[in-house]
Amino acid sequence: MRERYLLRLGNDQGWEFVATEGAGPWVESLASIMELKVCEPNGCPKLFFVRTESGMDWWQGPSLRFPRSMARDLPRKGWMAYDLRPLQLWAHPDVPDVICEIGDEGNHEMNIIRMWQSLFPVYNRAMDYGGLPLHAALVERNGTGVLLAAPGGTGKSTCCRRIPPPWKALCDDLTVAVADTDMQYRVHPFPTWSDHLWRRSEPTWDVQRHLPLSAIVFLEQGTTDEAIPIGKGKAAACIMESASQVCQAFWRDLALGEKRGLKEKVFDNACELARSIPVFKLRVSLDGKFWEEMERTLF
Predict the structure, then answer these.
(1) What whole-number distance in Å separates Cα of residue 205 and Cα of residue 31?
(2) Percentage of residues in the chain with pLDDT exceeding 70?
(3) Full domain range(s) for residue 103
(4) Are strands 168-171 and 136-141 parallel, antiparallel or unpaired?
(5) For 244-262, how does the pLDDT look when each residue is reduced to its tens digit (9 = 90+)?
(6) Mean pLDDT, to the nearest integer, of 167-183?
(7) Which of 94, 216, 265, 297 is least surrounded by Cβ atoms within 10 Å, i.e. has the fewest?
(8) Last residue of a domain, one of 118, 150, 167
(9) How many domains does the chain have?
(10) Domain holding 164: CATH number?
(11) Separation between Cα atoms, residue 38 and residue 16, nearest integer Å
């Protein structure tokens, strides 16, 4: 094993990102974007990153495909392969660790897509404990977080650029909400992978930073700025749609039963989140002060 990096979430879940031989520079780049630090072995579940030669039989389990030094303690049977194209994940019901095959050396675009897809186990385990990945920006005020949710191209990034101090935008595309043991929600900023994919910039995100979640706001373009409360049923549907926008790329090739199970998990977690956190629709004008409407409604 080579480098390893720690990802610790606000509900005390943790992951070790472990680079096996040949994967070190790739994992170092991923860790840099997410501002993860080098760590020692600490007992957290591991996300192993493995390079494999092209053309290897997809059906061979990890105990046959990977170096003996890594595979000797792995079960020989019972592994499930998830082909996300252009990477493959291996998971086992009796093993907390996940193996991520990142394939041969790729070009810049391929590497960024693989980094984005490699985080699916993080999202999935967060959902196991009541959390959700959400297609939403995260803004902070007075130490609490507010999510600005909307489909791509409908205003999240623009609102993040426009919002003034003491507000601060922590991310503009993807946020992971986790539930602690008291079902209180904390939110983490996650990377906007398109910034790196299209080389618009090379920002980093402190993904281990987390804030208590105070509200979720669904953006809508309007002629005036106005915050409108959303009922719990509608709020749950909107939250589920926001989470599905993140997850659907990982669902496409799952077996029907497994896909149904994941969608049910997202639905249950969305309902619980809607019961616990205020949800609003926010109409945003081109030149208004939408943040003042948020402050009037939320604080």
Answers:
(1) 10
(2) 93
(3) 4-118
(4) antiparallel
(5) 999 988 887 788 888 899 9
(6) 92
(7) 94
(8) 118
(9) 2
(10) 3.40.50
(11) 9
